[in-house]
């Protein structure tokens, strides 16, 4: 009857978990009383929702463990046109105990947040009338947690396998080009088309112009427009060559500008945007950017919130299962 180690019925647990994925635990308690006449304290709501979230995380991990035992099929029928994989990180406010001794962005060098890593997988079959890619309806699923990059790499790989990685004609990974992300792509998706998000590249281009022409607004605007067009066309070498010519002769000077140029040098082949567009690929990672805000931020980054890693990961599991339309799968296997 699913009542072991709990005084709450499966129905109550399910409703509290559903609400807990969307709103604060105080609001969950209020809604349960108002909508169902069931009295819960805020702490009761927290315990129930997090317990279900932890069980969801265990269920999901069991599924990933099974996927890791599968051999890569050599003759799989390619039934998916293009599968996209995106992932990023976003800070979650934590209790002092969870950030003790960790470096952060505060003025004193301490941290108030821990990074939650979030990934998504979706498919694309069609182009619109203007030749732009269209995401397949209801094809997006999410997975994430506060964990190391290595563990997360296995997580996002398994989610891609679950979604049909081996059945895809083309695999595209869209990221911001950070080093930890490049390492995951190289390890788990080495044969994929890796694209650096165009909008992140534009931000780096603007920063490069600021570093080089901070006191010359005319020149700053001029080269921003010129290089913006080159970036859209994927002519990264031209940007690097022209920007390098403006660097000071002293190799120890212009550190920030050199760093931005290095970013473009590292990601040259991942920034061939015209070629990517011509092949009908997305070049922006808007799906995961929105996911960080809706899946993580909307629930875990409200004013005054502080989480433990355990509690945050339980709610992240709840959110990912909910946003991935996997709730029924979870509850069905739970009562078997």
Can you walk through the features of this model?
With 336 residues, the protein is α/β, with parallel strands linked by helices. Helix content is 53%, strand content 15%. The protein has 14 helices and 6 strands. Strands 1, 2, 3, 4, 5 and 6 form a 6-stranded mixed beta sheet that branches. A hairpin with a 5-residue loop joins strand 2 (113-127) and strand 3 (133-135). Helix 5 (149-162) packs across helix 6, helix 9 packs antiparallel against helix 10 and helix 12 (286-300) packs across helix 13 (309-323). It is globular. The mean pLDDT is 93.
Helix content: 40-55%
Strand content: 5-15%
What global shape is seen?
globular
Q: Over all CA atoms, what is the radius of gyration?
A: 23 Å
Count of individual helical segments: 14
State the order of secondary-structure elements, H for helix, E for strand. HHHEHEEEHEHEHHHHHHHH
Distance between the termini: 10 Å
**Integer average pLDDT:** 93
The count of β-strands is 6
Oligomer: single chain
The helix-and-strand class reads alpha/beta
Profile the largest sheet.
6 strands, mixed
Parts with pLDDT < 50 across at least 5 consecutive residues: none
